[in-house]
Amino acid sequence: MNHHHKGKNRRLVRYAAILAAAVLTGALSVTCAFAAIAPAGSDGDAGKIWIGENREQTYETLDKAVAAAGEGDVIHLQGNFREDGAAAKGAAVNKAVTLDVAENAVINGDGTANGITLSNGAKLRCSGGASLTMSGFKTALTVGAGSIVQDGKYVLDGNEIGFALSGTGKLQGSGRSALTVSAKNSSGRAFSYDSASRFIGCTVDVQANKELSEQYNALHLENASLTTKGVWYYFNPQGDTVLLSLDHSDFYAYKATGASAYKQTMSIFGPSEIKNGSVLTSDGSRITNTGAMKVTDSEVVFKNSYAGGLNINYGGTALFTNSTLTGVNMRSTPLYGAGLNDPKGQFIKFTGDSVVNTPAKDKTADNGGADSPAEYIVTGGSFRIAYDAGYNYDVTTPTNGEENGNERLTLFTLTDTSVTGLNPINKKGETYTYSVAKASDDQKKHVWVPAAKVTFRLNNGNASFADGTTKNKTAQTIRGYRLDDVTGNTRPGDPSDSDGSRFLGWFYRDSSGAEKAFVWDDKITEDRDVYAKWDMKTVVYHNGRGETFISPVSSDKEKTTVLGYDVITKQSSEFSVPGKQFRYWTKDAAGKTQAILPGSEVSFAQGEISCDLYAQYDDLQYQVSFSANGGQFSDTSVFKQNPDVFEIQKDANGGETAVLRNKATYGQTLHELLGSFDYNKLKPDAGAVKTGSLLADRNNWNSGEDGSGKSYRFDDYKLFGIFEMKGDNPEITGDTVYYLKWKDDPGVQTIEASGMNLPGDLWGRSQSTSSKTEVVCDGETFSLTGAVDISSVKEKMTYIENMFSEVQGDFASIGLTDPRSVFTAVLTMPEGVKIPDDPEVSAEGLGDCFVLGKTSVDGQKITVTFTLRGGLTDYQKLKDAVDSAGVESPLAQGKNTISLTVGGLGTDGGKTADEQKLTVTGTVNGNFSAVAKKNDELKRFRFSWSATQSDTGRDENATGKDTIQHTLLISKPMELILGGDILIGEDTEHEALHQVNAGDTVTYTGRLDVSSIKEQIQSLKDNYGGDADKITTDRVRSTFTAVLTMEDGLVLPENPTASLTDNDLFEIRSVEREGQRVTIVMGLKKEYTKFSDLYRDVTGVSDTLDMKVPGVKIPADTKGGTKLKVTGEVTGTFTGEAISEAGTLKAFNYRWKAEQTEEGRDFMIQDPDSKTIQYTISVVKKAPDKPDTPDKPDKPDKPNKPDKPTNPEKKKDEGGIGPLTGDQTSVLLWGGTALLAVLAAAGLILKRRRRS
């Protein structure tokens, strides 16, 4: 440009400034049809507009340049521009020209008008890395049908709408980095597009500040990246038109939060396709899909959502092929799922080398599935999910599709991660291809495939596995593969039988019934029931559902007693069949042979080693009811209009329930039960009434009496008036009640008080020691008692009386509607406490007011409830009932204590350590509600209570004053071995067999040497630093059991007796005989409360203790040379508590068993390591005396020749080997074991006291 033109331009600028000033001051008025994009700024950065290569000819506005340009021309601009004026229209590039941003251009609007509009084939581009920045517009850039935005950097921030694609308008660059568009900090929708618009080769970033942008049109991205914040997508159905198409593209949508209706990031109501390496990310919520979604070689990601991930609904489907589904920080709701509404035809399917990645921690959120009849299908891929087969199995467990038999699959982790494909066997017996080329993000491969399960059964009630357990063990693998091809399987090892039966190996029967040896490394092609084979007989009980229970029988027995069904199910819960009532056993599965009752005998045929018995059942029947929940149904209700279908029953409070006359069997659906009756009539009765309440839900019944259960709508209906929805058709698995749901009538006065305090306490053996730590010996059962002071409850009853002061003495005139009260006590046990499946629960103080409710166990929590008794329909009845509740206790004044005791608790030795403290905590929460009516006056009462620890029983270990708790001190036994021996007289039978004449009677004696223990006790007492006389003891208990087993051939007395060396410590409690076995039980003679007394009695015992069992006879017809043995076992326990002078508690727990001493080992036992206590005798047949000869009476009689001594050359204990013995012979058992236990325990008490 020459100097002439520069001067001219400067003059034009001055004129423009003068003109603008005149306009602003009102000296000159201006009227224009539209505003123009015009240059602004100083000379150096002022905007410039020109056409083609002619930079000399510039234009004042973009519109003038467009008017001057011909089709195909290029209009260039650069520098700073403004939207000139406040009219409604900006610059229109409305012909087939190219608008080129030659250098960086900035266009600022004043917020009242649109910016640039491209139409009729116009194009926009930035050259040489230039950028176009536009802000302050209603819509900064509009791209009309046939127009394109090409490569460049477009910064469209700070507008109401950054850009709008209209019709077939496109963002079409040569690549994602070549065309970038930013529409952030937008005050309105931020951007818009039409279904025919396209995003191609570009990167777009959009932000709507108010989070209220709504987009309804189909979205198509090709080699593009789109990120949006504050935008909600609702892709409206357009027939078969694809509503979301990502081709080699990334779409990242943050959940919009501007309206409560924005539950999802997007809803797709039609087909969608994500392919060729595309990534769809939903951040903050779920995607609802009701069309056919196809994800191919791509990824779908969900982040930071508590509302779920991919929600397949209303007939939608999703097919993942060689694709990845990822969940990051998901909470509360599954990552993927199908079938919530209109489930028929819905499915989510993974095939090829697909992958699902989650943290695999939350079994709800890091998981997925489908509600039937929707389908969850997997035929390929790796799935890192938090799957739990015990949690919603039918929902979270996929199948392998109809072509493979729709079999439920099992999730395995492959041992070899280099495997890229599998060929599992489906339920049809055919192999199919399962691809798994890609690992999950933990670098492992987790596959959903058909399983072959191997169950290892001991087949012997006296046997245990190598690890000491007795429950069946299982291993499983991919059907058609080895057990070691997947992780998690452990070989069972060789089991052992406590009676010494020999294990012959693991076996199973093939489909033909032939027995085969089980080989761990074989490929498993079907489920195998593998059993341990023993050198014994068995009775095999079958439950008819694939479970068996094996009862061992001695190999020499020809008959055995049949077990009861309940006996078996107590030992093996898997044996129980739901919905069935056991009748009897038969020898055939069909039940056509003779009935065999428990307690009867079955025989083994010659050569038979196994007998099979099959359970036969009756079906249990269940009642299905519809409850008015304290109210009454109207006379026009479906229940009262169909007396042939329903029976109306009234509860004690007058509430009505409609009971179906037909009874259900287990698994029967409601529709099957109703038969021809129209289930659509099962709507809640709109005319039902309940004093003080209004019907809360006119469509749904509820499974919970309090309305907090699952809702059921039984009639068919249309969702949103569009989608056909089938009514619920639940399976019946027990007595079932569906309740009406009520809400408070706001016209009734409510008197409410919540959070009132109930003083409570928790103890074990005695309430008097509730504050003290309680010793629990490992292996023993114990009980816990929780109690509350209900004085506050009774005070509230008085409060109600005062509300109706005018009826004092006539409380029966106050009617009560739906009186309810539930108190819930929860005991939380620490790890280390074992809770039985069905804890023993008893209550005190319920009176005529409460009844003990259900008890449930959930993990380490025991929940017990007691509820208000029915029939309290007026206030006088309620008052009398409440007054009857409570018993006296130190917890409360008067008869105001209610207590619950839970028994049968135990300890888990594998999870506890000796002297470990475990804290049990308890909570109690209660409520009472009723509507009271006197004449026309209604009052609703609603009270609630919670318990806190009373001051008197607070745990000495408690750190807070309100927590109800009790501390247990675990005492694990110290295992000790005692030396023992059996003798006849003083003969240990160590060097030679002891000989006994046939026909003689012998006495057995057991001996224990306790001298070393006495020496240790003395030493400990002498060395104890404190005053041992001040140590107190409590709960000192000791029981010792000696078992003497006689070999057949030895005859025990019918009522055997036993005697013990005289001592001040132990006495014999019982002597019992069972067959050839004698069991002697000993216990302490007295209770010990002082260590000094215990010390005196222990040290006063002689160094050896003997216990004698007399009267064992060797029959006279026993053959000479017969060897007969006696074996013995001694076990014992000693437990107690010692309290030092300072009050420190120590628990002591000892468990003993005796082993044979070296010097007394049976002559017949050659193994030097044998510990068996045994004594063997050799029977000698006594020769008859020779008769006198009377032939020569005058000659003196010849004396008889004396008997020849037996082995006279062997000497032992001054008398040689054991002599022939008669009635005077003694045989020893172990009386001293019990003493030894106490000696050692007492010594250890002293030792620990001294150390403390």
How would you portray this structure in words?
This protein is mainly beta. It has 5 domains: 179 residues; 156 residues, no CATH class; 110 residues, no CATH class; 223 residues; 251 residues. It has 10 helices and 95 strands. The protein has a 27-stranded mixed beta sheet that branches. It is elongated, with a radius of gyration of 46 Å. The N and C termini lie far apart (106 Å). The N terminus and C terminus are likely disordered.
- The structure class reads mainly beta
**How does the major sheet shape up?**
27 strands, mixed
Assembly category = single chain
The figure for the number of domains is 5
Mean pLDDT: 87
Instruction: Give the radius of gyration.
Output: 46 Å
If helices are DSSP runs of H or I spanning 4 or more residues, what is the number of helices? 10
Instruction: Pick out the low-confidence regions.
Output: 1-35, 1204-1252
The end-to-end span amounts to 106 Å
Helix percent band:
under 10%
Region (Disordered): 1180-1223
InterPro entries: LPXTG_anchor (IPR019931)
Keywords: Cell wall, Membrane, Peptidoglycan-anchor, Secreted, Signal, Transmembrane, Transmembrane helix
Signal peptide: 1-35
List keywords for this structure.
single chain, 1252 residues, mainly beta, 27-stranded mixed beta sheet, 13-stranded mixed beta sheet, 10 helices, 95 strands, 42% strand, disordered N terminus, disordered C terminus, transmembrane, peptidoglycan-anchor, cell wall, transmembrane helix
